[in-house]
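Supplementary material to the annual report.
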Amino acid sequence: MKVHVDGIEVELPAGTSAIDAVFSAGGDVPYFCAHKYLSPLGACRMCLVESGSPRKNPDGSFVMEGEGDAATPKIFWFPKPMASCTMQATEGMHIRTAKTSEVVAKAQAGMMEFTLLNHPLDCPTCDKGGACELQDRAFEYGYGASRFGFDRRHAEKHYPLSDFVILDQERCIHCKRCVRYFEEVPGQEVLDFIERGGHTFIDTEEGGLPTGFSGNITDICPVGALLDNVARFRGRNWEYDHTPTTCTLCPVGCSITVDARNGRLERIVAGENRDVNEAWICDAGRFGHPFASEERLTTPLVRNEDGALIPATWDEAITAINRGLLGLPLADLGLFVGADATLEEGAALAALADALNARHVDHFPRHSVFIAPTATLTDVATADAVVVLGADLGEEAPVLELRILEMLRGGLLPAEFAHGTAIADLRLVERPARRPERLAVIGGESRLWGHAGHRVSANGENALTRLAHPDTDDLKAVRALLDGAERPVLILGADALRGASGSAAALLADLASRTGAKVIAIPAGPNSNGLAALNLVPRTGGLGVDRLGEVPAAFISRLDPGMRAGGFTVVHDTHLTATAQLADVVLPAVTNYEKRGTVQNLEGRLLPLNPAAIQSGEAADLIRTLTALAEALGVKAPARGQRGAQTLLMGSVGVNTATVQVGGALHTFARTFVAPAAPHTPKLWTERMRSRDRDWVERIHDLVEGGWTLPVAPAAPQPGGDD
Amino acid sequence: MSYFAEKQPLVADIFSRYPDSPQGRRSALMPLLREVQDAEGFVSESRMAEIAALCGTTATEVRSVISFYSTYHTLPTGKYHLQVCSTLMCALAGSDELWDHLVETLDVQPGEVSADGRFSVQKVECLGSCGTAPMMQINDDGYYENVGPSKCARILQSLRQDLQPLPDNPVPVTVGADGRQVLATGQAIGSSVTGLHRLPEQAGGEA
Ligand code: SF4
Ligand code: SF4
Ligand code: FES
Ligand code: FES
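Predicted assembly:
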């Protein structure tokens, strides 16, 4: 299909919207209500273009214009500008944007003036300022002046929709993105327009927004009406250091951008990764970051003669470790790590374990079986049947839940163009028809339960066996769904994998091959899939982290079992956790927001981590901490830094993580290590992720102690009216 | 306390007018709201939730629909609900002054009911009687037109004695179940008098 945009001819697939035709041709159209992953609806009327198409005579030939050879099909222009987001481009269509059409430029400037009629224009105090679609577009396409000289609408400016999201009703331009988002994406009709015309505002009648995926509306609101309350008033957009990285709170591995200012992590916004999280992240991933800048350990701590942990230098800590471990056979030192460590860190730890001949090696949490993923998240979204066994996705892998809900809407993934994801994919519609009968949930009740057509209450642990040999009508129906589907996907959660053994894996493999189902077994920890490729499980005669108390001495990195090893205990962590409080030496660690490295998500995709500019004193990642530990033990450090760890990884598992691209790449490791594991109940939110209060108190204290006086405005009335 | 629990035949009748599908069920929202509004004078939050459950939607959506129409109320109204047109023509002819006068003398704000339970006030948009501006509608009874200071005083005085003067005009047009438009007097008007045709597949039913 050929379309002409401002005289440039572009070849496009049928069904493309006019707005995407313009962007494909390298042009630009301002838009507010259209959004890549939402249905186009034509609410804001900013995306106006002039358009026209050729017409055919009854005999099928084109109506021509001009004489003889110079004749071309006559273009019949629409009499008025049209909204390009809801108009389909057609063969031979001509489109004129503001670049070539004065009519369009004037119409858009007029629309802008309308949109700004009631806008408070409080950009100087607005968190969106500097990254605001309205601000940018007003600058690019507006008149720069308003003829409206009256009072603007006044409405609630600090209206909390929930603890996390604050609404400024004056700033809202009624694009309806937030309303459509809730209805179309998480399937919760909790926001809507109230009143009409100039009085319209956004509100909910459900007593607040449901936690889960509510924060996404703060990203998609084109203005500063919906704001992230955790990041509110923390900085201006141009002051933040933006670091695109990967969220490692759960094994989905969503793309995020970490915004830091003055060395503090102030905000997290969603990044786009079409293969993983599209443009959405969960509330934990977005709002659960206060821990990264609150009560951090910034220096090593060493226990003194009085039994108190006191700040020390790294050298003192190394001496203390050396002294504490004196006489201990190196092979007796336990090495334990949290399952959100990067692959590089894992490789360094495995190499050190090899060098020490250590037996007590483990990472936590992990399952006692390894089931290699065969389905991708895109497979989930485009499946025609999904069966979820024993999973609480809200705790284990929230965005996987969104991809399942996408499957219920028909799995229409917006098209991709050279300019990125389609801005308006006309196949996406408001209030999409859903197919709940394609989703079966077996296990305990969860948020997904309400969306499922088949619900079977079952004890997760035997769910798989019961599905393989269905014993009730309900289960038989689920089995029939699986058997009848062409692209089924099986998802196993923590309940189904708890205590699972090799026979369960065999049963699953058999079920998958019979039904043609692809499988995702949700890993227990954010990087459990990746770490499984490294020999980080108890070796012959070794003990796991669940029997830490029996291990003679231990080095524990970013794990909080709440107990110490039998003897000398070194803890490497970001905070003074319960375990750290029991330790002999505490080494400060960096969070995953501050690391460079690679993790592997639940579908086997290698994803990169990039370090944000967060202040953490002398904290170090595991690789550097292991060099210190090696020094204390008098052995050669496994790797001196990131490069060295990458080389180690290349040598041990044959993957070059230096080349992992932003969007990540699927990878299957040839070998995986498993061992019996202690049961574990996944929990997404931790106490430290929630509070920012302590932090505020600290800051206010700083201000007061720092002798600041806050300027007070004069009480005299100011000349001039409202505007 | 449920409103519809005891009225299953009515509910069934309302739902029978729409397709038996999730979308169809949502369409029953308007008649259900009208039913509650007529019976109770307003739609309370608990009724919103009840209707939402019946239609398979959320209270947010019900409130959104209610708030779109100025004829649904979420708070109780007085015995005489005065709806003052505040659109341009009436505004030019003094509806602002009329409004201020009503609010002051009756001592009610929108959303309130006067102490004696008689009066509530509401600003509405153009009621299509611009030629007789300023004007107001009382309940669903009819239009009171050219309401200047003295006429306003007369009307209020009669209402205080519960002697509601006859409206200058009935509310112009209502649409009957058969789709025809009639004046309050019952007189058929508009193009529906001659312009309504039964669709072929429905032919045979009574006209
Ligand atoms: S709050 Fe924001 S996203 Fe929602 S309608 Fe208003 S401008 Fe659009
Ligand atoms: S779904 Fe998982 S990876 Fe994605 S934002 Fe939430 S916690 Fe982070
Ligand atoms: S009308 Fe809003 S983007 Fe097209
Ligand atoms: S402006 Fe008041 S009735 Fe039309």
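Residues 203-207 of chain B have pLDDT under 50 and may be disordered.
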